[in-house]
Known about the structure:
With 188 residues, the chain is mainly beta. 11% of the residues lie in helices and 35% in strands. It has one domain (40-187): Jelly Rolls.
Amino acid sequence: MTLLKITRRTIGLCLVPVLLLGCGKEEFPAVDLFTWKAKVDVTDKANLSVNVESIGGATGNEGSKKVVDNDFSAASKFLINPYQADFYMQLSFPAPQQVASYTLTSGNDAPGRDPKDWKFSGSMDGTTWVDLDVRTGETFSGRNLTRTFSFKNIILYNHYRISISAVGSGTLFQLSEWRLIEVPVEQQ
């Protein structure tokens, strides 16, 4: 019996260094177990510019800064009076982004002020534009309603622009929020 205990103890002591040090060093290729990428809102990385501003200026109560302030409440919106058919909003990034989705959130009051027709474009230099998504006859079924618009895009652009060529009706434009979403290719 004691011989059996001594043999077990000896074998156990011999196995400890083997287990701790390994039987031999094998090289295995590094594998990234976390290759999944998420959709990311990149709006806050950009600088906003518009070609038509609210009467109160960019930082006014209904100025352009409200459209990218990440505040979806009824109190935060961008309003233009009068709306002009050549109106656009542009987000410029310090480093290129692969945007393949954007959201628009309707304003808090009159649906006639909502964007109806627009094109969403990307540019490397801010001069030459490529249309990525074109919409006509769009409507929002409610106030402060966020809608998502997705498209395929594998190119990273420094500038993104939405050119709104028509509103629902009337001479006013309003929008509560505009967000740009970076979407990995495998999720487009």
